[in-house]
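Practice problem: predict the structure.
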Amino acid sequence: MQIFTFLTILLFVSACKPPVKKELQEEKEHPKLIKTIGDPRYGNIYCSLQDNAGNLWFGTTENGLYKYDGKSFQQFLEADGLNSNSINDILQDKEGKIWIGTKNGLNIYNPSPTLSANGKMFTEIQIPLPKNLPPNTNKFYQTHIVQDIMQDHSGKLWFATIDGVYIYDGKSFNLFPIVEAENGFLSSNDKVERVFEDKAGNIWLGGRTNKGVYRYDGKTITNFELKELTIINESARFEKDRIINHSWAWPQLQDKNGNIWFSNWAGAYRYDGKTFTSFTKSDGLPGNYGLVAKIIEDKNGNLWFGGDGLCRYDGKAFISFSTKDGLPNLGIWTILEDKSGNIWVGTRETGLYLYDGKTFITYSEYKP
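Answer:
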């Protein structure tokens, strides 16, 4: 009887032990991306990449570039050779070189800094400024802000900069010609912010100062007008500012069915080769406005939309994720699926989260 009583008490005590130590241990089981610069309320994880070796790269708007090898995060800043701590895009080319576009131009990552000319981990690549640039030009147009990088099927690199689109053939940079387009005109004032190549080899260009999107087939540029998507900003100070229309779009991807997807601040478009179909908050996009900044397709063919919230689209319905799923920040800028099928989400406030198929795990922290 005494033995039975002792075992009963032992089981009861074991069952009632608080799981605090276990939770703390689990919290320490994975490293975190540490934000070190700026106010914790500001800054974004803006772009991401998984390289050929499996390393994950995350570019931020003020904390430089982070490399994650699965064991620890390594932060790269201007002291390491970057020409800016604000990263707009990352791309690994077919030769394995990693290109970084920043607010001050272009860099290439050198895995062996001892072999580089300046002993730094990054080498700055100068894109030539336009020859007809007036001497009193705004300073932003003299720094070659690189906003997007794309490599086409022939191996040429395309750089969308604030001064225009440049094509690099491995030897020299050439400014993409500004030519008359069918149904419109792609002028120097139509700033291109995103460049994308579809499976047929067409180049798509888009930006926030354009109306619609442009397609370049190697000879002709065609402008496609888009249905205006509307958002209503109830918090606007003046009534005239409450209704905002968007008819521009960023080209994002071509899915497994051949559809090309575009996005803007009020929703998304799907192009099936003949018509554009729009998707907005009323169709299930999350957030207050349905804003979409990033779209990816995962290995299962689901589309993920990030912007003013995060959702997954299976071709029939949008499934939204929120704080209940462990995602505390819903301002999404980048989404990446790694080789293991995990979804990484970069947000405002330099937040990084991993979705393992069940919940979101925080992979970022602020330490001034």
